Amino acid sequence: RTSCSWALLVQGRPHDVVIEGLATDGGLYVPKRGFPNMEAREWLRLVDMSYPERALVLLEKCIHPSDVSALDLRTMIFKAYGSNFSSEAVAPVKHLDRNQYVQELFHGPTASFKDLALQLMPQLFAHCLPQMCNYLVLVATSGDTGSAVLDGFGGLGAGADRTGVLVFFPEEGVSETQKLQMTGHEDGNARAVGVRSDFDFCQRSVKRMFGESGLTGHLAVEYGTVLSTANSINWARLLPQVVHFLHELVQDGVITFGEPVDVCIPSGNFGNAMSAVYAKQMGVPIRKVICASNHNRVLADFFATGEYDLRGRPLTPSRSPAIDILKSSNLERFVHHVSDGDGRLVGELFTHVPLLT
């Protein structure tokens, strides 16, 4: 990457951002002007709304009607968060102990929290598809994303015939249930492939495919096909996850409006935690975003020490394979956020990170 090409991190037409997933220089897209900040009276309006109604209000502020009309966005959202979720609340919050609550993110069709994004993202993707191209969506998964991607893209109507999905997962790094969900998927345009390595290898390989001009050129010339991705490196995957941080504790009378809460999020690729950071930027009263790790703890060490060094750190499989990740893609977005949008700094820092893997 060069410092000038890293400008793509904060630029790009909205349709391109959704379809390309990864910027052409290998960087990640973020909103050029940040998130809109909502006033207290606007948040108060959301308190008694349903989950899809809240999602519509928030996402209308982030998606321009010239890209997705208000009517189309409403149709997509109410399809994404309807009878396919086993809870009417979509992401209900339950009392755990004293002042501790747990948000249930497993009520979607694949029982993965990724359903909160991946029931909507494929619809946005199909809406943005140009007329004359086919797309191959490449996905690396540590377990949860794969089945949610397959289900989300499998439910597409228009655009499904021009969209293929290829999911790569670590053969020995996912649960048996997750493996059966992925390999048992029968959609004609989607396949799951087990890889004899870990998630980081799968993710690194997907990114490398985007940079292989011979591969991308061959697909374009021979098959009229362009590569895209549905991992949280795709902005359209990350954006819908902001919504579920508008929890129901005010509606249930547990806290008063504006009272701050801390959110503790198990993190591997740092997508859901980054969504919480963006929710806070919009005005959700989040005090702390606590990044929970297992014994691989690369992110926990980074926040404790300020150092992000992957040298000599082998991945240790655990009972929580979704966070068995060493190289967290969305950390780039976090560094961009805390550096006040210094894309040049982000480019310089992350140019050297691949050398440490």
UniProtKB/TrEMBL annotation:
Pfam families: Thr_synth_N. GO terms for biological process: amino acid metabolic process. SUPFAM superfamilies: Tryptophan synthase beta subunit-like PLP-dependent enzymes. GO terms for cellular component: cytoplasm. Residues 15-81 form the Threonine synthase N-terminal domain. Keywords: Pyridoxal phosphate. InterPro entries: Ser/Thr_deHydtase_PyrdxlP-BS, Thr_synth_N, Thr_synth_N_sf, TrpB-like_PALP_sf. GO terms for molecular function: pyridoxal phosphate binding. The keyword Acetylation does not apply. Its cofactor is pyridoxal 5'-phosphate. PANTHER family: THREONINE SYNTHASE-LIKE 1 (PTHR43515). This is Threonine synthase like 1. The lineage of its organism: Eukaryota, Metazoa, Chordata, Craniata, Vertebrata.
